[in-house]
């Protein structure tokens, strides 16, 4: 069984998720934007072995703690898609601009592409490339538990911003309708900020993509 715990981090209340394989106790963390001691305390409380860092995209609130965490525990960094290389390169400048602790740039151990899989313990998740918020944004889909970890593509009642460099509104809409909706109305998604919702709920009521 794949399990997860969402831990809000940074002043931006970014939803960092700890995922683990119940059978093996092996864990990955999605989007460690900061507050690393808080995250590591939760991992220790759960008795897990943290083995990987997975990134949806490289904005500071999602990736700001990545370099330090990877260095501290000798962890591989998996994702995002290469389209976000310029955001990774600019992490030190992003940290200054948004008042975050100094952030390191890094080179991912593995870039991710549409159709890839990532594995933790006995569990596999599917990767979808969902550009629009950033050009290299990816989403992690766990069909075995009807969950998707969508970063800043979609929110309960809203969608990701597209006014940052290389954001693209139409690409974002196409990513949501073409790559998220086919995962099924029953799929619950964990967004980068705010509460969980389901794709069915958003298809019905989201003012930006409802009815699509």
UniProtKB/TrEMBL annotation:
Write out the transmembrane intervals.
none
Q: Does the keyword Membrane apply?
A: no
Keywords from UniProt, A to Z, are: Hydrolase, Metal-binding, Zinc
Q: Signal peptide span per the entry?
A: none
Which SUPFAM superfamilies does the protein's record reference? Metallo-hydrolase/oxidoreductase
Source organism (scientific name): Verminephrobacter aporrectodeae subsp. tuberculatae
- InterPro entries in alphabetical order: MBL_Glyoxalase_II (IPR051453), Metallo-B-lactamas (IPR001279), RibonucZ/Hydroxyglut_hydro (IPR036866)
Instruction: Name all Metallo-beta-lactamase domain ranges.
Output: 13-193
Name by which UniProt lists this protein: MBL fold metallo-hydrolase
């Amino acid at each position: 069984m794949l399990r997860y715990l969402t831990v809000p981090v940074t002043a931006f209340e970014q939803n960092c998720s700890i995922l683990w394989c119940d059978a093996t106790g092996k864990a990955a963390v999605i989007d460690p934007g900061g507050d690393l001691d808080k995250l590591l305390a939760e991992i220790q409380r759960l008795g897990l072995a943290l083995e990987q860092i997975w990134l949806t995209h490289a904005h500071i609130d999602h990736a700001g703690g990545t370099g330090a965490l990877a260095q501290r525990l000798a962890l591989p960094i998996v994702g995002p898609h290469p389209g976000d290389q310029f955001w990774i390169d600019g992490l030190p400048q992003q940290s200054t601009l948004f008042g975050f602790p100094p952030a390191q740039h890094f080179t991912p151990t593995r870039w991710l592409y549409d159709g890839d899989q990532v594995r933790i313990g006995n569990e596999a998740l599917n990767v979808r490339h969902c550009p629009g918020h950033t050009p290299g944004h990816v989403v992690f889909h766990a069909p075995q538990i009807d969950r998707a970890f969508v970063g800043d593509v979609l929110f309960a009642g809203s969608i990701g911003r597209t006014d940052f460099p290389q954001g693209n509104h139409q690409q974002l809409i196409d990513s949501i309708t073409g790559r998220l909706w086919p995962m099924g109305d029953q799929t619950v998604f964990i967004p980068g900020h705010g509460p969980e919702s389901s794709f069915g709920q958003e298809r019905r009521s989201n003012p930006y993509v409802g009815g699509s």
